[in-house]
Design goal:
Blueprint lengths: L2 H9 L6 H9 L20 H15 L11 H11 L6 H13 L5 E4 L4 E8 L2 E9 L2 E4 L8 E4 L1
Antiparallel strand pairs: 1-2, 1-5, 2-3, 3-4
Helix pairs in contact: 1-2, 2-3
């Protein structure tokens, strides 16, 4: 939990924007004050810290780590949709989710059913549950709660 302070100490005297320095220092703060290192709340957290927090969590969850295998980007997007309110700034989170999901439009995926599909449409209000195409059949995952996207091919 001290890496934010150590990182800040390393760059504090460098010719780097103050915004970036504060982003490094505050990227583990949470809107409700449960983060670290200073337990800051919403308006006291620098916007760069709020942005880096979202990107850092997304990267950690979609990457293989010693303590877990990577999750599908759509599973992570769903986790953000379900679990991040009150912790992350929703103004930044909604923009991030919409933009990250659009990176997967047109991509081949593997569904939890084992079928290969293609992402063909994203719902603005629920980007984790797109419409996918399996062969010539369209499946709206918004209305198929038992089917998930397991992998990007």
């Amino acid at each position: 939990k001290k890496h934010t302070l150590h990182g800040y100490q390393i760059i504090k005297d460098q010719n780097i924007s103050k915004d970036i320095k504060l982003g490094i220092l505050m990227h583990h703060e949470k809107i409700d004050g449960s983060g670290y290192p200073q337990c800051l709340k919403g308006p006291d957290i620098h916007p760069f810290g709020k942005l880096i927090a979202i990107a850092d969590i997304y990267d950690a969850m979609t990457s293989n780590r010693s303590y877990h295998k990577k999750f599908s980007p759509f599973k992570v997007i769903n986790m953000f949709e379900q679990e991040s309110y009150g912790l992350l700034d929703t103004k930044f989170l909604f923009v991030f989710l919409e933009n990250i999901a659009h990176n997967y439009l047109g991509k081949e995926i593997k569904l939890s059913t084992g079928e290969q599909a293609k992402v063909v449409f994203l719902h603005n209000n629920s980007p984790s549950r797109p419409i996918v195409q399996v062969d010539n059949v369209m499946i709206d995952l918004l209305f198929e709660p038992t089917i998930s996207i397991d992998e990007i091919m």
